[in-house]
Amino acid sequence: MTGIVLGVAVVFLLLNLLAGLWRIGAGPTAADRMLAVLLFGSTTVAVLLIMAEWQGDGALRTVALLFVMLATIVTLAFVGTPSDRERP
Amino acid sequence: MTMGLADLIGATLLVLGCAFYGAGTVGLLRFPDVYNRLHALTKADNQGLLLVCAGLAVLSGSWGVTALLAVIWLLGLTAAAVSAHLIARHARHGPDPGVSAEEP
Amino acid sequence: MTIGVLVDVLLALSLVGLSLQVVTGRALFRDLVLFILFGLLIALSWARLGAPDVALAEAAIGAGLTGALMLMAYRRLAAGGAADVSPARRRPLLALPVAALAGILVAIIGLSAQGVERVPDAAGTLVLQELSATGLGNPITGVLLVFRGLDTMLEMAVLLVALLGAWAVLGAAHPGRLHQVDRETPLVSALLTTVAPVTLLIATHLLLVGTDAPGGAFQAGAVLTGCGVLLVLTGTVRPRAAAGLLTKLLAIAGLAAFALIGVSALALGRAPMTLPGMWAVYLIETAMMLSIALTMTLLFARSRALGPEQR
To answer: Checking CA distances to A35, which of A84, B101, C114, C265 falls within 20 to 30 Å?
Structure first.
């Protein structure tokens, strides 16, 4: 029974991810698109943790740990990219 | 096919967590500008991660797993806060105006 | 198990859809973001396929490093005014048959893999049978260090050659400024003080458990690289123009440790590349981890060496 709940939760979060893709197409700014990366980052962690319980594979928790540790690297690199906001 | 009380509590927390994730995504898709979206997304997802972690901790029934989940959630909070701050700063100011992108 | 199938189908469809978007897209930044997300989904797929070793490496490299590398490249393109240039015109007449043929090829391989029977003395089966003799519990580490040690050693050589090549291309140019935030930026110092120590801890953990569980030198090296890139991007360590002795020693440490222990077996009258014991496994793994981390961080920073911030 809990197996079904875990599986449905994974499917729901994956659908969440796919919905978030729309924001990348719509934009309009680069920051909006980075928000989708943020969504993917946090949701992927949850999916990995649920999968670890669901598939009985504890190593996936370590994978999730790596994700949260290194999630900021992409944002730190993004900060240097030019903004598409109009400057006076 | 029976569920113990712990399983029931764990599953409920998990479902609640997923609901928060769903709310964050709706915020990302529906809110009018980048700051609103940022606010909705990071706040809801942090709460979602907490509830998912709590639910999984109850389901796993292991102190070791619970400790690891707590570390993951705390690091997730830090990462989300820093990322959200940096993205908001970039959206407002662009890259640091005093710094040229590349020196020769 | 039907939910499992649903998850697999969802993942597969999103991967194909995302890769299509990345390849056919017209906006550079948007495609770049999609590529980063593609890496995250690939890591999820490895997790789903029950390959946590690969998922670990993909999480460190695909989620953090590749994305950062591409954003840095985008920054350079934008600084040169080239980011707005639309990609070259498509040639559908050429692309469609290529895509169709590639699809047919994948389908044939996939279908034929369905019908293959497991050969009793296939290499993988033999490795699993002989694994207990190595003293290692993780078959992947067993293959990397014991059964195919020469290959792994040559991989370290490839990494070293890549670094030397990058140094040659760099020439005498002083590495430019890479970081846009520093520790004065709010929250960044908090990030560094929490995340950097944990990365070191996890890298050590992955290295130690790698003998018996998912992990190992490559995963630990990738995690340490993440830490290094974090330090570079926050300006905590700055690129230096000239490599010191320590940098050079660390860059060759993995290859050297492997080669010395592998060749010394000859002097003791054993076959080359036989490892004398578990201490050799840990020594080689540690040396490889350090070399991998240093090399990849230097490649990311486009520099010969890294040093602390000078005031």
So the answer is: B101
